[in-house]
Amino acid sequence: MSSPSVSALLERIAAAGKAYEHSQEPGSREDLIDLSQSLVAALEIPSEFIQRSFWSEPAKSAHIRLAVDVNLFQHLREAGACGLTPESLSHKTGLDVPLLQRILRHLTATKLVAFQDGKWRGTPLTDGLAEQRYQHSIAFCYDVARPSFNGFPAYFRETGYRQPTSLTDGPFQAAHGTDLPFFDWLVATPPHLSHFDSFMSAYRAGKPDWWDFYPVAEQLVAGFEPGKDGNSDAFLVDVGGGRGHDLVQFARVHGCHPGRLVLQDREPVIATAEKSSRFEAQAHDFFTPQPVRFARAYALHSILHDWGDAEGVKILENLRPALKKGYSRVLFNEIVLSEENPTPAATSMDMMMLAHFAVKERTEREWRAIIESAGLRVVKIYSYPGVAESVIEAELA
Questions:
Q1: Of 30, 334, 389, 393, which residue is the catalytic one?
Q2: Mind telling me which residue stretches traverse the membrane in this protein (predicted)?
Q3: Is 284 helix (H, G, I), strand (E, B) or coil?
Q4: What is the pLDDT of residues 280-311, one digit of tens each?
Q5: pTM (whole model) above 0.90
């Protein structure tokens, strides 16, 4: 299929712009970004593509990593609309003026900072990046993830261009000279673990949560009948829910939910979970039988994408006996890769999985296959415009 013409793209950009400015229509912001990237792809010639991809963008990310070390974005945020002269910013960051000017010119050219009347000023984007969770995220992505991506060509050439299948022998291990699995390496090499934790808390910030686009009232609250025919009084069980972030947010939005909320994770994680009267915490390994039977719903947020198909089936087989046919729902909050129209948000996460975990994000066909292999059936897939993650609703077959 041929690419859309420039005039057609401009018309679509104008329409998406009106939808965004006038009504904040869901997905219109993301649509504008996607269309803008399509416009660049339609206009850019090969020499410009090479320069942008292999000179401009790598230099930009390196400058942003350097900015973390010298608190550049924090200084610009503190200066606000007044801005900072090259000499003043040099004094604050420790970068000599000629080097600072060259770096900031590139960040200005790539629309990250602004320069006017002899002063540099931050932007809403750099003000956001000045937050600690994004500073840590930048450090993790540059120091840990980027070497893995840079090593793709050599690693796959040496392994005969085959997908990695081992948690201890993949692009990540080759890049960092280790035979440790990803998480074990993070623990052994501070401060990478804390930086990764910040990255995980930040990479979906500002995006809708699963309960924002899954019809909780219609699909879960309606029909919740604790005690009937042995039904549990548990309304929602968050399987592998970490320290409880999702349940805290869910309870805030759905404060009038019926029944109990149950947080489950391994004992060491539960021991550090935030204390809350909104839910009860329970130690549970999802590779063992599910102890809460006949709950209304079991939520698994980004759980199965961390595992291969065989392990995923085992997780579901341990959950299946706890389900009540026609009543219990299993909600998978996962990325569903589009085979025809993939988005960078989804494919970039798939590349993260390829680089670090020897696993993958799945297409709808692949999700249906693994769910059905465990004796469940997909009821419906709920998505939100512009958001990579979907909610796959399933029940006993």
A1: 334
A2: none
A3: coil
A4: 999 999 999 999 999 999 999 999 998 989 99
A5: no
Q: Where on the phi/psi map is residue 24: left (φ > 0), alpha (ψ -120 to 50), or beta?
A: left
d(CA 219, CA 371): 19
Report how far residue 139's alpha carbon sits from residue 126's, in angstroms, rounded to the nearest whole number. Answer: 15
In this prediction, residue 2 has a pLDDT band, given cuts at 50, 70 and 90, of: low
Indicate which residue of 30, 361, 389, 393 is catalytic: 361
Note the pLDDT tens digit of each residue in 192-243. 988 988 888 788 788 889 999 999 999 999 999 999 999 999 999 999 998 8
Q: Are the beta carbons of 191 and 135 closer than 8 angstroms?
A: no
The whole-angstrom separation of Cα 219 and Cα 396 is 15
Q: Can you tell me the distance from the alpha carbon of 112 to that of 37, in angstroms, rounded to the nearest whole number?
A: 17
CB atoms within 10 A of CB 105: 13
Selection from 358, 340, 361 nearest residue 349 by Cα: 361
Residue 64: its H or E element: helix 57-70
Question: Of 75, 195, 305, 356, which is the active-site residue?
Answer: 305
Rg of the chain over all Cα atoms, to the nearest angstrom = 24
Is residue 192 flagged as an active site residue? no
Give catalytic status of residue 30 as yes or no.
Answer: no
Cis status, amide bond into 268, omega within 30 of 0: no
Give me the percent of the chain exceeding a pLDDT of 70: 99
245 is catalytic: no
Tell me phi and psi for residue 5, to 5 degrees: -70, 160
Length of the chain: 397
Helix (H) or strand (E) holding 8: helix 6-23
